Amino acid sequence: MQLIPLGDCAVVVVLTAKTHAAALDAVERLVWSLNHAPLVGVSDIVPAYTTVVVHYDPVAVAPGPGTPFERVQRWIETAPAAPSGVKRPAAREVVIPVCYGGEYGPDLAEVAQHTKLSEAEVIRLHSKGVYRVAAVGFSPGFPYLLGMAPKLATPRRATPRMAVPPGSVGIGGVQTGLYPSATPGGWVLIGRTPTRLFRPEDEAEPVLLKAGDSVKFTAISPQQAAKQMELVAPLITPKVSKQAAAFEVLKPGMLTTVQDLGRPGRQHQGIPVGGPMDRTAARVANLLLGNDENEPLLEVTVNGPELLFLRESWIAVTGAQVRGVPGWRPWKVDAGQIVSLSELVRGSRAYLAIAGGLEVARVLGGAGTMLSTGVGGWNGRALKTGDRLGARPSVIAPAGRWSASAEFSAASDHEVCVRFIAGPQWSWFSAPSRRAFLDEAFKITAKSDRMGLRLAGPLLALGSPDQELLSEGIAFGSVQVPPDGQPIVLMADRQTVGGYPKIAQIISVDLAKLAQARTSDKVTFREVTLAEAQALYLEQEHSLAMLAAGIRSKLNQA
Question: What does the alpha-carbon distance between residue 382 and residue 279 come to, in Å, rounded to a whole number?
Answer without folding.
Answer: 19
